[in-house]
Amino acid sequence: MAIHWPIVLLIFFVNLVYITLNTLRFLLTMKGYRNLAPLVSVVEITVYVIGLSLVLDRLTNYWNILAYALGYGVGVWVGIIIEDKLALGYMMVTVILPETDTQLPGILRENGFGVTQSAASGLEGQRLVLEILTPRKLERHLYAIVKEAEPKAFTISYEPKFVSGGFWVKRIRNR
Description:
The protein is an alpha+beta fold. It has helices spanning 5-30, 36-56, 62-86, 104-110, 139-149, 169-173; strands at residues 90-97, 114-122, 125-135, 154-158. The chain has a four-stranded antiparallel beta sheet with strand order 2-3-1-4, with helices on one face. One of its GO terms (cellular component) is plasma membrane.
């Protein structure tokens, strides 16, 4: 069975593009980008139909099927990398500090982060709890500041599903 490399590569790249768009569309939908996600889906399904027709017209050549499958896997990987670079959405970060006497809330505010602080009781005494809502683009910067200022801090983060009121509401609504 002869390998027709231009078709094999075309199938690979078409499916890579399709799955990359599929991954991005899914992530846009999950992050609440209700206007952009449908536009991406129009391009996505067009590319899908083209890629599928290329394979279905040439099912007798297993290289085409392999190229389709490899394009799928690489497309998921590329989509994740692109989404990570775009860093869509927001993160809620909770920082629990072992000491209540700390400069960290001020340092974070000086760096543009909104911080809500509260006192808490832990197993070994009083703690300071910081709640910080941050765009994902700044998440790693936030962690670096916390680690430098308070290396013993306990930090946990999650993606909020709903935000209402407070420091970030106007920015979140504008998306």
